[in-house]
Amino acid sequence: MYANKFRLDNRVAVVTGGGRGIGLAICEALAEFGAEIVIGDIDPAVGRAGRQKLEAKGYKATDHEVDVTKPDDVERFAQTVIGRHGRVDILVANAGIARSGTAAEDVTDEHWLHVNDVNYNGVFWCNRAFGRHMLANGGGAIVNIGSMSGIISNRPQKQTYYNASKAAVHQLTSSLAAEWADRGVRVNAVAPTYIETEMTSYRNDNDGMIDVWLRDTPMHRMGQPDEIASVVHFLASDASSLMTGTTVVADAGFTCW
Ligand code: NDP
User: Looking at the Swiss-Prot or TrEMBL record, what is one Pfam family this protein matches (predicted)?
Assistant: First the structure.
């Protein structure tokens, strides 16, 4: 009875930014439980490489080029996927960028708008396009990737634009959840701590940065992509059927202090 709630057989799952990092781990987790995977990534080479890694493990996957900052592109992506697969049951709005390290007083218009365009507007365009389909189809599960940065202000790196964009993702998640709850579409978010991916590799170019991060983390370690993927899997599956509008914090205790 309980194990079945975690199965995703015959479900189609779209993962934006699914070609690498946390997104690719999410694809693998959902595929392992039976979902058919659709990767949407801005870089076709990254999307293709991700798809090939999934296929090498015996999973069913396709990859598509999409820039989540462009609403028309996102609509086209949704129509193509729905046309090809007939349905989409799960959306993981994971694509995001950080561009950390610029003080608020020095941020250019381009910098602010770009980060918010990918992290926040992009999440909404994807939720709107796939959410509309799920509402018409009688249900679905959406998981947005927020961040603990939407709850705290990171140090020592400066990144007001990133922190604000992720707080917006959490609020967007609960507002959409409230609108769609009685029509079968659940919307939740995950707020990770520092995870070892390309995005956080800048720590190696900044002396002492990692020491501050680990000192501020009760578990004194960074996370791995699979530790976020398993939380996303839970929220995408029927095991979390009573949950909507929640941001699940997976932060090694960071927000306890
Ligand atoms: P990565 O940089 O490793 O991967 C991000 C993926 O998103 C890449 O494949 C990237 O494509 C893709 N992407 C970027 N911009 C767009 C766009 N406009 N349209 C479509 N795809 C795009 O990041 P992570 O795996 O570390 O991060 C994944 C998510 O997790 C992000 O939302 C991030 O903010 C969040 N997060 C990450 C944390 C961390 O410590 N790593 C902590 C908390 C949250 P390309 O390869 O071409 O760049």
Answer: adh_short_C2
Residue 1 — pLDDT band, cuts 50, 70, 90?
confident
For residue 200 and ligand 1, the question of a CB distance below 6 A is answered with yes
Q: Is 162 a catalytic residue?
A: yes
Strands of 123-193, DSSP E: 140-145, 185-192
By alpha-carbon position, which residue is closest to atom 10 of ligand 1? Answer: 17
User: Can you spell out the DSSP letters for 94-133?
Assistant: ----------GGG--HHHHHHHHIIIIIHHHHHHHHHHHH
Ligand 1 pocket test, pick from 14, 22, 226 with the greatest ligand atom count within 8 Å of Cβ, gives 22
Amino acid at 140: G
Band of residue 119 on the pLDDT scale cut at 50, 70, 90: very high
Amino acid at 143: V
Catalytic member of 59, 120, 161, 162? 162
Going across the sheet that includes 247-250, the strands are: 61-65, 36-41, 12-16, 90-93, 140-145, 185-192, 247-250
pTM of the shown model: 0.98
Ligand 1: residue whose CA is nearest its atom 34: 96
